[in-house]
Amino acid sequence: MQFFGGSEISPSPPAPTASGNNAHMMYVFNRNGVCLLYREWNRPLHTLNAQQDHKLMFGLLFSLKSLTAKMDPTNADKGNLGVPQLPGQGCSFHSFRTNTYKLSFMEIPSGIKIILVAHPRTGDLRESLKYIYNLYVEYVVKNPLYTPGTPIKCELFNTTLDQYVRGLG
Amino acid sequence: MAAIYSLYIINKSGGLIFYKDYGSAGRMDTNDSLRLASLWHSMHAISQQLSPISGCSGIELLEADTFDLHCFQSLTGTKFFAVSEPGTQHMDNLLKHIYELYTDYVLKNPFYEMEMPIRCELFEINLSQAVQKDRVALLGR
Fold first, then answer.
1. pLDDT tens per residue, range B70-87
2. Residue B43 in this model has a pLDDT that exceeds 70
3. pLDDT reading at A7 higher than 50
4. How far from each other are the two terminal CA atoms of chain B, in whole angstroms?
5. Where are the domains of chain A?
6. Complex ipTM, two decimals?
7. Per-residue pLDDT reduced to its tens digit, A134-149
8. Is B132 in the A-facing interface, judged by CB distances under 8 Å?
9. Domain A23-42+50-70+85-167 carries which CATH code?
10. Is there a smaller number of Cβ atoms within 10 Å at the N or the C end of chain A?
C-alpha cells in the first residue's frame, strides 16, 4: 500500500464528501489497543459500556484486518489466519458499510488506527482520515506535554477536530 | 451480472456450506475456507453491536485495497458473500440471483439436508452460468 507521499505539513482539508449528516463517532487506537481518543457527536444507541465498546471495536478491526489479508485474491502467499500483521503488510481494508452506518478505517505505519463512523451514503473518506492524521501530528504528537500511549486530552485538537468533522456534514 | 473471484455460502450458525473459487491467486484449502467463513460470521454479528443507530443488519460491503467483499443475508440467516474486484457494480443483484438459485436447486431438493454442505449438481451448473456471463473482465491470470 503506497503511503503518504505528500510533502506538505498541513494540507488543506479536502472537499466534504458526505452531505447532510455529521459523523456519528470517531476512535483513535494505538498499536497496543489502547483507545487514545473517542469522540461522539451523534450516537442514539449505546449497546455496551465504554470500555467494552472500545475493546470490541479494536477486536473487530484486528480480526477484519486478519481476514482481509487472508482473503486477498491477488496474493498467493499468505500467512496463517490470526498471525499479527505489521501495519502496511498484506492487503488491508479501508472501509465497510452496513445498512445503518459506514465505518472508515486507516492505519498509520506507526500502528495508530483512525476510525470514523458516519452515515452509510458517505463517500470515500480516506483523504479526510489523512487530514485528521495530520491534525493528530500537529496538535498531539508535537505537544510537549503529551505522553504517547496515553489518552489524548489536548483541547486544541478536540476543537479543531470537531470543526473539521462538522464541515464534513 | 458481474464477475467475481470467489463465493461463500454460510448457514445461520456460521458453518461453511458452499465455497467456490472462480480463478483467484488466493485459492484456499478447506480448513482455511472454513475458518474464514466462521470468522466472517462473527464479524458480521459484532458489527451489528457497534452500530450507533438501532436496526443494523450487519456488514453489506467491505472495501479493501485489492478486492471488495459483498454480503447478502437472507431473512433466515443464511449469508451469501462474494469477493470481487474493487468497484464492481450490481453485486447485490448477482447475490440475490444466487439466492434464487439456492432456493430453487438446493432448498427444493428433497435429498438436501438443511445446514449441511451443498452437493447439488444443478445448483453448481446454474451458478457457473450466472457467474461466467461476465468473466471477460477478470482476465489476466
1. 999 999 999 999 999 998
2. yes
3. no
4. 21
5. 23-42+50-70+85-167
6. 0.86
7. 999 999 999 999 999 8
8. no
9. 3.30.450.70
10. N
CA A101 – CA A118 distance, rounded (Å) = 6
In Å, what is the CA distance from B95 to each residue of A106, B9, B21, B104?
28, 10, 15, 14
Taking an 8 Å cut-off on Cβ atoms, the answer to whether A71 and B65 are in contact is no
Determine whether the interchain pair B47/A42 forms a contact, defined as Cβ–Cβ distance below 8 Å.
no
- Using a CB-CB cut-off of 8 Å, the residues of chain B touching A60 are 43, 46-47, 50
Task: For residue A101, list chain B residues with Cβ-Cβ distance below 8 A.
Answer: 51-53, 56
pLDDT at A1 over 80: no
Give the global pTM. 0.86
What chain B holds in terms of domains, given with CATH numbers, is: 4-140 (3.30.450.70)
Q: What letter represents residue B120's amino acid?
A: C
Is residue B78 within 8 A of residue B10, CB to CB? The reply is yes
pLDDT more than 90, % of chain A: 54
A36/A129 Cα distance (integer angstroms): 16
**What is the secondary structure of B69-102 as a DSSP string?**
EEEEE-TTS-EEEEEE-TT---HHHHHHHHHHHH
User: Which residue, chain included where needed, has cell 492505519?
Assistant: A107
Look at the block and give the residue holding cell 449528516. A21
